[in-house]
Amino acid sequence: MVLFHRPCVLLKRWSVGVFLAPQLLFAQALKPLPLSWENATFEGYQCVQATARGEVYLFRSDRWAVQAVAENGELGEASPLHLTSPAQEPRFAVLSPDGEAWLVLAGEPRLFLRGQEVSLAPLPFIPVSAAFLGDTPIVQVSPGVFVGENAGKALEKWRQKPPWLLAWEGGEWQPWAFAPKAPHSAGDEMEDALQLNNVLLASAGKSLVVAWRYAHRYWLLNSQGQPELSLERRSFKLPRRSGEEAEAELREAMKKEGVATENMTIVHASRLTSACLGLATRRDGTVFAVMGKPVTGGGLVLERFDPKAPVVHAVRLDLPYDGRLSLACGKKGLYLAAHSAQKGRWFLPWEMLEKAAWAEVDVEVKGKPHQQ
Asked: What is the pLDDT of residue 296?
């Protein structure tokens, strides 16, 4: 089965057939600066990550290694992550706020502390995304899908209420949060059950920022996994596609990300289109997220908000790429990297973002503004 995540969100005051607010349509878009890191030419998955201090690193899947971004913007030498056993191809990686640990999703979660792998118990679920809450790894799993040697025991234990977010605590995986009711229905029982609560996560001090992939919804979870704040686009409607449209778009998206599809048989292509392509938090608490086609009708939008004053703003991005992204808030600006290393990396100085033509997004706010 092939399920591919691509994004979906909506903005303020649009006319029929147009998802962006009129002021966004005519405002000047931000054009990120391309990064030509010649010592990081490779094929495969990549991501940029930042510490709470704004130190930026590039993870490269070809070597299972990381490279630090220097003050002048250049990349340093590669530092390896030492595997204790063979692993599948990496598809997601996150850095702890203190910069000491990496968590890499490669079939199973693989945890590295100062470059050395730390043994983790098998995870009987499919990991979808991850983040750190302090130094604790948090993994979002696909609810109701049980895998591995412990699948039978997990099914018996979690059949009625499978966990949504799991934390690595006390030498084992502990349920940290359970999935809320799915925000919408895709009209497909499997996709409703397995995908509509898929999210991206980002560290925010003692809290965790959650952005839904397929709905315009942000949550702020406290250290106990309870929602403190919710921001959700009013009157959001989930985009619908036929199975044929979904498969065609999946093939095209995979080609853009460097995946050969000529001899591939797609059993099931998700009819969902992701809202959130990338998520990160800055050390002052500001949240940044990149939104895709269902928001704009085409192209990308950068959103930002401060949980202490939860007003969401957005500005168009002029970027020659519309797939999954990783974001990193550095000392001098926002870094962006395509999912595939061959598809590009970019940079937006903070000065450029402060001067941008931001427009307010119409969201419903529930809960109290966050005070760290």
From this structure: 61
Q: Which own/partner contact pairs does 108-113 have at CB distance under 8 Å and 24+ positions apart? A: 109/137, 109/139, 109/168, 110/83, 111/137, 111/168, 112/81, 112/82
359 within 8 A of 314, measured Cβ to Cβ: yes
Distance (Å, rounded) from C-alpha 40 to C-alpha 68?
Answer: 11
The answer to whether residues 69 and 58 touch, using CB atoms and an 8 Å cutoff, is yes
Q: Phi/psi of residue 359, each to 5°?
A: -120, 145
Q: Mean pLDDT in each 10-residue stretch from start to end of the chain (372 residues)? A: 33 31 60 95 97 98 97 95 95 97 96 97 91 97 76 75 91 91 68 79 96 92 94 76 66 65 62 86 97 73 93 94 95 97 97 95 85 59
Look up the pTM and report it: 0.85
Residue with tokens 């229905």: 185
Kindly state the tokens that stand for 15: 């006319």
DSSP secondary structure code for residue 186 in this structure: -
Q: Are 145 and 132 within 8 A, CB to CB?
A: no
Number of C-beta neighbours around residue 329 at 10 A: 25
Euclidean distance between CA atoms 310 and 133, whole angstroms: 21
Q: Which residue carries 């003050």 as its tokens?
A: 71
354 CB-near residues (< 8 Å, 6+ apart): none
Mapped to the 3 state alphabet, what secondary structure does 86-97 carry?
A: CCCCCCEEEECC
- Mention every residue, 6+ apart, whose C-beta is less than 8 A from residue 262: none
Q: Are 270 and 4 in contact (CB under 8 A)?
A: yes
Residue 95 bridge partners (DSSP)? 102
Helices (H), 215-356: 243-256, 293-296, 350-354
Burial of 293 by CB count in 10 Å (0-12 exposed, 13-18 middle, 19+ buried)? buried
